[in-house]
Design goal:
By secondary structure, this protein is of the alpha/beta class. The protein folds into two domains: 211 residues, 3-Layer(aba) Sandwich (Rossmann fold), CATH 3.40.50; 57 residues, Orthogonal Bundle (Arc Repressor Mutant, subunit A), CATH 1.10.10.10. 40% of the residues lie in helices and 15% in strands. The chain is built from twelve helices and eleven strands. The strands form two sheets. A nine-stranded mixed beta sheet has the order 1-2-6-5-4-3-7-8-9, sandwiched between helices. A two-stranded antiparallel ribbon has the order 10-11. Strand 3, helix 2 and strand 4 form a beta-alpha-beta unit. The longest helix is centred in the last third of the chain and has 14 residues. The radius of gyration is 20 Å and the shape is globular. The two termini are 28 Å apart.
Length: 288
């Protein structure tokens, strides 16, 4: 990993500077973020259901093409899924581990490879803790306040009744930020906390369009821009583009299309040269 740097106060975003309990210092690895981007904190349980995983992936994939940066805590579970899905969809992502940023102290160790991938793809890791600070019970709620304060909104995917995720949601409210939650079954152990947030007035999110509206984007205008961009595509190219509105692997695409494999491969190569699509982390997707 590269050298840990301290972010000078003049480079801090307004959202953090205006926090009453803003950190004394901020260390980072990777590129300095574009603070003009719209930041969305995505949090959820370390233990998650298949529903929670799929919802997280679908909602974030639907933000592709927008100037949105996904913020999360590098933790196991929904945090890691949020970071990975952001990377798969060419969205920038920032991780706030509950530890210092020294490679021997980053927590959890199992997500070191993910941390490196975030940096490689132009994202960053941030921490207010000294580089060799070990993760401890008190470090997680402390870092949560920065994630809540930085972002325009916090999205809770799944949270149990006593989940630490609810601390982030409460802090977001304290900072006058938007709190959103995904509805789950009333029988779901994993969703009792998020359903409680909805009962208390959190904004329900059932689609990416709901999120875009909360974040201040006009999804209809973005759709129109995509239509203009692809007006000159051939019939076969349009079929492929329709199939990768959500990124797919080459094998998945071949299974969905009723075309010879050789023709699909030629089309994909041609479309990549034209700048219509790109292939990253084994997934083919529409290029921004």
């Amino acid at each position: 990993m590269e050298e840990i740097k301290e972010l000078q106060k003049e480079d801090w975003p307004e959202n953090i500077l205006e926090m009453a309990d803003s950190p004394k210092q901020l260390y980072y690895l990777g590129e300095k973020p574009d603070w003009g981007s719209v930041f969305l904190t995505v949090v959820g349980s370390r233990k998650y259901s298949q529903y929670g995983k799929e919802v997280c992936q679908k909602l974030i994939a639907g933000l592709k093409g927008y100037d949105i940066t996904i913020v999360s805590g590098l933790a196991l579970g929904i945090d890691a899924i949020a970071h990975k899905t952001a990377l798969e969809n060419n969205l920038k992502t920032i991780a706030f581990p509950g530890s210092g940023l020294d490679k021997d102290f980053i927590y959890p160790k199992s997500n070191i490879a993910l941390a490196q991938e975030i940096i490689k793809k132009g994202g960053s890791l941030f921490s207010e803790f000294e580089p060799k600070q070990e993760a401890a019970p008190w470090t997680f709620p402390q870092r949560n306040r920065i994630m809540a304060g930085l972002s325009k909104a916090t999205l809770v995917i799944e949270a149990t009744e006593k989940s630490g995720t609810l601390i982030t949601a409460r802090l977001a409210l304290d900072y006058n930020r938007e709190v959103c939650a995904v509805p789950t079954s009333i029988f779901s152990f994993y969703g009792k906390g998020s359903n409680k947030l909805l009962h208390q007035g959190a904004t329900p999110i059932i689609s990416s369009e709901d999120l875009l509206q909360v974040l201040g984007f006009d999804s209809e205008n973005q759709e129109n821009q995509l239509k203009i961009k692809f007006d000159n595509c051939s019939k076969e190219e349009k079929v492929i583009l329709e199939n990768i509105k959500e990124p797919k692997s080459r094998d998945e695409l071949i299974q969905n299309l009723q075309m010879p494999i050789s023709q699909i491969n030629i089309l994909l190569s041609s479309m990549e040269i034209k700048g219509l699509i790109s292939e990253s982390l084994g997934k083919i997707q529409i290029k921004d």
